[in-house]
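Usage example:
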Amino acid sequence: MYQAAIIPQKDVIRLGKDFGKHPVGTGPFRFVSWDEGKSICLKRFKEYYAGPAYLNEIHYKIYPGGQDPQVLADFQNGNLEEMAVYGDVKGKLADTKKFQWFHRPSLSLFFYGMNVKHPNLANPDLRKALSSAINRKIFVNQIYKGRFEIAKTILPPGMPGYNPLNRMEDYNPDLARRHLNQSSGKALEDVPELEIVSALQFPRVEKEMAMIKEFWSGLGIKLKIKYITDWKSFEAYLKTDAVQIYRYAWFADMPDPDSFLYSLFASESPTNFMKFQDENVDRMLLTARGIVDPVERAETYQKIEAAIMTSAPLIPLFYMSVDRAYQSYVKSVNVSALGAHTMPLNKIWLDKSSQTN
Amino acid sequence: MSRSKERLLKKSGFISLRYRFILITSIMLLLLLTSLALVLGILQTRTIRGRIEKQGLAIAKNLATISVDHLITYNYIALEKLTNQAVNNPDIIYVIIHDKEGKVASYSRRPDLQNRLLTDKASLNAIEVKEPLITIHVPESGTTPVLDVAVPVYLPGSRARWGTIRVCLSLELMYQQIRQTLWSILILGSVALAIGILISNWVAQRVTRPLETLVGATIEAARGNLKQKISIHTRDEVEILASNFSFMIREILAHKQKLENQLKEIKRLQQYAEKILATMSDGLLAVDMDGIITAVNPAAHTILGIPQSPTVKGCPVLNFFNTDMQFSAYIQQSLKNPSGKNQREIHLQRGEDTRILLTGSGVLESDGKNPKQLIFNLNDITALKKLEAQIRQGQRLADLGTMAAGMAHEIRNPLSAIKTYVALLPEKIEKPGFLEKFQRTVPREINRLNTIIEELLELSRPPKYNFNPTDIRELLRQSIELLEADFKVKGIDCQWEIPKELPRVMADADQLEKVFINLMKNGAQAMPNGGVIFIHSSCENTRVIINFRDTGHGFSSETAENIFNPFFTTKAKGTGLGLAITHKVISEHGGQIEAKSRKGEGSCFSVSLPKRQD
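Running the assembly step on the lines above writes:
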């Protein structure tokens, strides 16, 4: 329930699993209803600490499984005030000047996580080989129209502890091959077929998978692609030991490296799907939480990141950005680096008189 | 305002003194105001810009200090907060924080540019700076220049550079203040200019008013009003100028009066001359050298038969006459030789009537040596000629009567003697001595009659001469020699003065010798008691003149008039035909003979003969 934090402990305990269906948070709007798979409705919370919001209500429309064309059509017809920008939507809209476009890098990372406990991926050299075999530039340019910046670190730029020197090797087929050779004495044909799992299955993702398959086939590594489009089933699968490689993105809850490194790599973290386990890293993560001096704290996280990198439990691909389109009459939009979901909505107001036709 | 002044004012470049004065004052004021605006503008720009630079530098340094930690930790979120707070200051346009790598760690209110490398020139320069740098540039999005302050971020006590802070400040305030200053100067300047113009106008008027009065006076004078009075009392050069001008116009007035009088006199004389020309009986015709009529008086119209029309002037004169006429030839000759003596008698045929004109021509107008116009004066002497012919006829009858009387007298005397002797012959034949007397007288009288008849025959004989080039000097010398002995007897002294280079004359030497002898004998006869005969010869133009002067008793003017008439004589002896024959011979040689005398003072016969033409 990161969207609504902070949440009341009493209600969470009382409602248990149902709390998710009747959430109570601390924002400028309160939860009204949730029509599963269709919409969520919020109403203004008049006693919000920073003053009541300008909008009376907010309706979230749900497009299950991502229905880009439908979203676009609804936005163009004025049924939506806000739309996430994916792919080349901007190119598809005839009159882009009619709308407001927002783009900003966010504190996020798109990556392929690897289950380090899985026999196929236990060797760090193999994991490094897989990372070095991917040409990220081509990957971002062809699949994501060059919209994102390629990632070589775990922590995104702007996140305290980010260190451009901690980078992983970018596309380097020779290095990949060397890593592969170091990983085992086995002949290529003996390398087992790997599996990658994706929660999304639409043409763009399939194209992405095909490209990765081709990169790795250069190393003689075969890849099986698995789609689990139901999010619950997908997360459940990630928690199993069977998971090998998974397609995932991480957004920082707050601009602190702890929300990245602890969440993804601490032994105790429920989202450590890589099953990464390193006592030193665990200790440093706990120590870092107690450091107040920002410089010292950042330096500690840089060290943690460097330590994790040596093991290469994940393949960073790109830092994501927040890309949103708004109708022209939506005013005071302020996109946060933590992602669209952390956007302050209390200042937003609508000026229908300024709507351009 | 008079027309002349208007005309003067329309002259290009005319600017009155007053306007010049105002113009100069205005230009000076404008220059002063422009300089003031420039100086104030520059000073203000420098001051305000210095202030803004200081402000920008302070903000940037402050930001640098508080950004160090965030730059080290790459905390873009914290930096973003800083930049967004900083731009709340209305003077700040944007704040950019570049990280160690030069990427945008934060760009105020432009999160989309985070983590980007800016490639514009200002950014590329900014991320390289080692020391604070202040630049002014015009942003791509605007037209007003902005001030860009770039400050590098160093760790305290280290040269390790961790980023750059850029603060962009608006210079709008500066330009606004400068604009305000300029507007103030403009408004104050306009007021000052207006007041300046008014004051300079007032001062200029004081200076130029007497001058304008004087200008007005000059214009009036130019229009002809010279009787005005100028009273300017400025006690300066203008007053002197005015007084001099007054004096000048009085002088001009006097001159003008004089000229007017002269003009009147000239007009009177002109009218007088015109009247004379109109009323004179002589015709006057003026033509230019091309034969075009330039003037013709009424008498000339009548004489020449030219129509009385104003169009006559400007017509070629020969149009009015046939080319073969004597008058046409005369005009053409005069035009060819305008300076020659062209007095002539001309017969002008006008229909059946023939007019006799005495014409003369002269140069009327000339351009230095070249004549431009000729004037012909035409005197109609037809009536005079008729009268002359009538007189000549009467004279001829009178002469004939005189001659008949003379001849009768001359013939009757010998006839009477002969008649007396013949009548006495019968009764006195016997008387002794009568017959001798008869034989002596009658043949003498008969000879006398015979001489008269011979001389008459000679006088009436048609001329028959043998003309040859004759040396007059030689001929005179011979004649004198023949008479020398006779002169001695009579106690006459003959003196002669004849130049050796006397030209020859076409003459019959025998006839001419007779003439000379006759004239000398006549002289000798006028001096019965002796005297001097003086012969003098000279050459004048085309003629040879020979004078025979004596110191005899002379004769009266009445005698002089008739002396060459036949049978006119003052002598007891002689037929009275000698001088008539002399006159005839001289005339038939183309010469003239004149007799001049005063009673008791001797006489002079002057012979003039044409020179031989070579």
